[in-house]
Amino acid sequence: MRLLSSVVGAAVLAGSMLGAPAAAADGPALARGESIRDRGYAAMVVDGDTLRFAHTRNRTTDNYQVIRLLGVQTPEKLPGASGCEGPEAHQFLRDAIEGRPVVLASSSDSRSSIRNRRQRTVYVRMDDGRWIDASALMLSAGYGQWMPKKIEPVHNLEYRKLFDAAPGPRHEHVEPGVLRARALGESAPGDPARSGRCR
Predict the structure, then answer these.
(1) Which residue in 140, 145, 185 sits closest to 9, CA to CA?
(2) Which of 173, 171, 144, 152 lies closest to 104, judged by CA?
(3) How far is CA 165 from CA 23, 120, 125, 145, in A?
(4) Phi and psi of 38, rounded to 5°?
(5) Domain 2-194 belongs to what topology?
(6) What angle in degrees, to the nearest 10, is found between the helix axes of 2-17 and 156-164?
(7) Which of 5, 18, 46, 125 is the most buried (most CB within 10 A)?
(8) Element (H, E) at 97
């Protein structure tokens, strides 16, 4: 929990250092060009970069949308299927946001190429009233790869800086071919997860 608190603080500080405006009392401060698409709850975290969004906190609701965090790619949560950190990334995001109020924002109605999931900036309301960006949180903690989006460029520079400054053991640069193989549950030459470097 101490790691989560320090990373949340770092993500908020990084946002303010990169020129993010102060958050409004009733919602997050949006980046230029972003619009609020919906408000509700992170009903259930599916893995380190995907959640079920609903208008209720009920984890088992059948009335939900699958939302993909914009600008970040984390390992899949199945141990051994796609890297070392998948279950840790899943648990970290779950501890941070599950059941909390969220605002979904984007500058366009972008969707992932796999499964046609909506991609959104997910702003999460913390207990102290601050709003944090879930993608920024995962990048700050070193659990994700920076995945720039041409059609959603508003956070690209911010996310790149967070990725570059991420902490040690979880921060690894992985080639796009390796990321694709991991996403498909396949192995790829040069994948650090195959070289015995898992903890």
Answers:
(1) 140
(2) 152
(3) 23, 23, 24, 12
(4) -170, 160
(5) OB fold (Dihydrolipoamide Acetyltransferase, E2P) (2.40.50)
(6) 130
(7) 125
(8) helix 86-97
Q: What does each C-alpha distance from 72 to 2, 10, 24, 160 come to in angstroms?
A: 23, 17, 25, 10
Contact assessment for residue 128 and residue 8, using Cβ atoms and an 8 Å cutoff: no
Q: Tokens at residue 140, please?
A: 């700050």
pLDDT tens digits for range 103-130: 999 988 777 666 668 889 999 999 999 9
Q: Can you tell me the distance from the alpha carbon of 143 to that of 147, in angstroms, rounded to the nearest whole number?
A: 13
Q: What is the pLDDT of residues 183-196, one digit of tens each?
A: 445 566 665 554 44
Q: Is residue 145 within 8 Å of 73, Cβ to Cβ?
A: yes
- Give residue limits of the domains in the chain: 2-194
The C-alpha atoms of residue 73 and residue 149 are separated, in whole angstroms, by 12
Closest CA to 73 of 117, 33, 109: 117
Provide the β-strand partners of residue 148. Answer: none
